[in-house]
Write a structure and sequence with these properties.
By secondary structure, this protein is of the alpha+beta class. The chain has helices at 10-19, 31-40, 76-81, 89-96, 101-106, 109-114, 122-128, 147-150, 225-231, 239-242, 261-287, and strands at residues 4-5, 22-25, 48-51, 61-63, 67-71, 132-137, 141-146, 151-153, 156-157, 163-171, 176-183, 194-203, 206-215, 222-223.
Length: 288
């Protein structure tokens, strides 16, 4: 029979995690789909459950001098409702596109990265935000891993069997703005065919810092380093025209039931241009 653990403190949760083979449950929106997918491949294991949903210390969004910290139980709805600077506009836009309201009320920001899906809407945003993932264990204390290193492959992360992801930490970035776009087979309640996230900081009308990431077009969402370098120092009003297909060469989109790899690559190219155009329009509105 499956054991179900529901501790009320993080210390208790870490004790259970260290001593038993358990599935960590937060919002729970991906548990049944993941179980069904495993069963489809002949994996009928039923591990015990560690439910961390009532650990109050994991529910907070906290602002420090140089960063924001999002606890492991912070939901998509909580992100949307939080008073945050324009740096988080893209992340909030992704939050509004994750499932319906019921999923947004239950699903967590941390759960979205722990499933390590190539189509996880939060992942490209966290990459461009320069986020770090906070992990805790009973015997090893707390460590932080850059988001770019957290996901190591399809459905794989660096989280050890004795660790729980306790928070996401995002550094503050001056007067930066962000955006997020996704393409699916329909407007809502859809898994992305391609998606892009971007953060731009300006010095006058020139791009001082650019971060662009693409998801659903590789086993792991990734930043476009060559494009970021090409954008730096350029006018934000000309940013969309700077994008070339070569800037997306590192992507490896696949053919699947939702789209062909060629379509995904073309969609990512168009989305990157559109995102940069949106950020340029926003910059013009601010000046006006």
């Amino acid at each position: 029979m499956i054991a179900y653990h529901r501790p009320s403190t993080l210390a208790e949760a870490l004790d259970i995690r260290a001593s038993q083979d358990v599935t960590v449950l937060a919002g729970g929106t991906d548990v049944y789909p993941a179980k069904t997918a495993r069963a489809g491949w002949g994996d009928f294991r039923h591990p015990d459950v560690l439910d961390i949903s009532i650990v109050e210390e994991l529910e907070r969004i906290e602002e420090a001098r140089d960063s924001f910290r999002f606890g492991a139980m912070v939901t998509w709805s909580a992100l949307v409702e939080a008073k945050l600077p324009p740096l988080f506009d893209g992340y909030k836009r992704a939050a509004r596109a994750v499932g319906g309201t019921q999923v947004q009320n239950r699903g967590t920001l941390v759960g979205n990265i722990c499933t390590a899906s190539p189509a996880g809407d939060g992942i490209p945003n966290l990459l461009v935000l320069g986020a770090e993932v906070e992990l805790a264990s009973r015997d090893g204390g707390v460590r932080r891993v850059p988001m770019v290193e957290f996901i190591t492959g399809y459905r794989q992360t660096v989280c050890r069997r004795d660790e729980i992801v306790t928070a996401l930490v995002v550094p503050k970035v001056g007067a930066a703005r962000s955006d997020f776009l996704k393409l699916g087979a329909r407007a809502y309640l859809v898994i992305s065919i391609a998606m892009v996230a971007g953060v731009i900081a300006l010095d006058g009308g020139l791009i001082a810092d650019a971060r662009i990431a693409v998801g659903a077009c590789s086993a792991v969402p990734q930043r476009l380093g060559s494009l970021e370098a090409a954008l730096t120092g350029q006018s934000v009003l000309e940013a969309a025209d700077i994008v070339e297909e070569a800037h997306l060469a590192s992507l490896a989109p696949i053919d699947d039931i939702r789209a062909s790899g060629a379509y995904r690559r073309a969609a990512a190219f168009a989305l990157v241009r559109e995102l940069l155009g949106n950020l340029a329009d926003e910059a013009e509105r601010r000046v006006a």
